[in-house]
Structure formats: structure tokens, C-alpha cells
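Minutes, structural biology subgroup

Action item carried over from last meeting: produce the C-alpha cell record for NAD(P)H-binding protein (Aquipseudomonas guryensis). EB confirmed the sequence was re-checked against the source entry. Recorded below for completeness.
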Amino acid sequence: MYLTPQHILLAGATGLTGEHLLDRLLSEPTINRVLAPSRRPLAEHAHLDNPVGELADLLPQLQGRVDAAFCCLGSTIKQAGSQEAFRAIDHDLVLAFAQRARELGARHLLVISALGADAKSGVFYNRVKGEMEQALIAQDWPQLTIARPSLLLGARSEFRLGEQLAAPFMRWLPGKYRGIQAAALARALWRLALEEGDGVRIVESDELRRLGR
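Output recorded by EB:
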């Protein structure tokens, strides 16, 4: 019998999508605990457990059973500072988070990847995202949901010139190439967490927009 997840592990709660997802999770009456490690303190909530520090350092210290885990980690090469630093976050840290989530009992992992993720891509960003997806699949999760959103739309805490310039055009592109509001992605992720299933499911941006309405 499938049970609604009551204990959640969330990485990336201070990011654009993570903030919306955290609000959603904390408003759900069925959720008893959200374990959300972060680099800066989050607003206090009765159901929120918020260890503060670098995620890589906090992972071994995380305790308590979790039913499902959401990974909203993501950076850019410019933001990370180099290709190596980008890979350390968007590949290595994602895998370490996923492994710890399994150790804490999670059966369902939901992870944000990116449109165009492909381990054989000639584009470094897309290749790293594709390699991350393949490595998560190799972890043999009971249920793994990979979200591939297009450009995320919404107010970020940091300024990204490229995204600001692209956003007006991304709103009008067809199908999976159209930009998606971060709040809609968060709603879609929660709906996907409630779906019973086994194995790997890859959800492209057009379906994410539909689920996030």
C-alpha cells in the first residue's frame, strides 16, 4: 500500500525553486517533518528541522527517517567559478545527497536536472547534467523522478544577466522549450512525489508546466 510521504529531506531550500517547494511542504497537513540543511538559517517552523552549514559537511550528521527526498541543488559555471567547481556541486554533491537520502530510508528521490541533459553532449553543462542523471539511475532507486525544466522564471536573490535577457523570449517558445515559473515547478514536484510508481521517470518541461498549474 502506498503512503503519502510524511518525512521529507530537501536540499537547496534557499534556491529559487527550493524556496517555493519548502513553503509548499510546510503547508501540507500530512507532512510531519521537513529536514532541510542549508547554508543560511531558514524561517522557523514547527515541522522544520534546519541544520545550518555546508551541505557536504552536514550530510553525515543528518538523522531521522525520511520517506522522500527532493534535490533542488543547481548552479551555473559562472556562479560556481569554474567547470570543476560546477561539477562538484551539480554532479558530486547531488550524488552524495542522494546516497545519504537512501541511507536515511528514502524510497523516492526527485531531482531537478535540466532541459537538454545528455551524458554525450558536446555542451559541458548538459553533459554534466546527463552524467548526473546516469549516476543516479545507477544507484538503483526504488523510485526516481528526474525533472528537466527549461529556463526557470522568477525573482532570484542573485542577478543573472543571461537569464534576464532570455526570459521574455522563453515565455513564448513552444512545448518543452518554453520557460517555467519556479513556483509551478515546485507544485509539479510535490504532485510527482504523491504518485505511486517504481523505477525511473523523466519529466520534461512541458509536462512539468501542466502538473504545476
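Discussion: The domain at 7-212 is CATH 3.40.50.720 (Rossmann fold).
Next step: EB to file the record with the rest of the batch.
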